[in-house]
Amino acid sequence: MIVKILDPSTTFKGVRYNTNKVDKDKGELMKVSGFGALQALQNLRPEDYVNYLEAQSAASKRTKYPQLHAVISCKGRSHSKQQLTAIAEQWLNGMGYGQQPYLLVFHKDTANNHIHIVSTRVDRDGKKINDSFEKIRAYEVLNRIVGVDEKQEVDKNIEKALSYGFSTRAQFMMILEAQGYSLKLSDGIYQISRYGKRQGAVSLEQVDAKIGTFSKDISRLAQLRAVFAKYRGQYDPAIVHVTAPLPGNRPSAPSGYTSAMAQMLSDKFGVQIIFHGKDGKLPYGYTVIDHSRKMVYKGKDLMPLTEFIAPSEDIPEISAKAETKAGRVEQNEKEQKTPSEETPAYTDHVQGTSEQWIPNIQIDISDDIDDEAIHGRNRRRKRKARTNTR
């Protein structure tokens, strides 16, 4: 489960955004609290809520961005609208907003149930609600509500990352970065952070020892090439920019690349494709994280980048032999999965699936994982692993 505090605003446009969702039957107003006598009136308009919030906020001339607009999102349909509402109420209390006027609006128009919270940062006495380390506290409060032990969680994820086969330190880092962690190497130790604070550590010695045992699975790579050959007519390998919708249906700036083929490989076979590029330029390489087999490969081990991203119409017809092999791979994958695993899994910052780590970066209004592309220069600026050797 994730929590996202949206960009600050001088106005309460979050009210209109959410009431528009309700008007279009894409959302449901779950609770209105703290609006005093206003709540006794019938047929309230969005402007009525906005006026009330603005009147209370006006008591603090120093608060430039009075709106609090946050989102709590769960994995798929794991939580109902009533459960999300109860969590949002507890989260507001934990963040100091329990006595504030607020709206809770459940959204049902994406693959992941989520609830929006709109309130004011100014209390009835004209004082600003404490927002120190707000984003860190937001997760601390949410984790406490849903019963997540952060230390236990990071230890489990480190153990899982070390169970993968990888041939470089950068590949190890990518496994954890795909879960929203950031890693910094210091004195032979990878310091691992998430939610803005240090969560755990793993020694470089452990990582290098694992690299020393790496053995490329030639048979699996051949299977994946056969899968690519079988499905390239149905799922276009041509890359497209990755964006996530923002409030007001505004598109975000491109943050990387994906393709219909890459999405299919992730959803159907548990194979995550990470394209490497920088400054909005075309990718210069890619990495394959095979979650179903717990292996990481350089993209060139599978096939050259130019072939992997060539539009479907530029690729020759598939051979009958390749299609037969791909069919066997698909059948084997289905036999290895339980029924619940055959559907695409959403993985977020707080909890992952029991078997696969496949982040879905195309969720509504929130950055489910590190949405920024894994670029060479940008990674160095952010202290992430370099990937321009691929």
TrEMBL record:
Name listed for the protein in its UniProt record: Relaxase/mobilization nuclease domain-containing protein
Top-rank lineage group of the source organism: Bacteria
Biased composition range(s): Basic residues: 376-390
Annotated ranges, domain MobA/VirD2-like nuclease: 17-145
Disordered: annotated segments: 324-356, 368-390
Composition bias type Basic and acidic residues, residue spans: 324-340
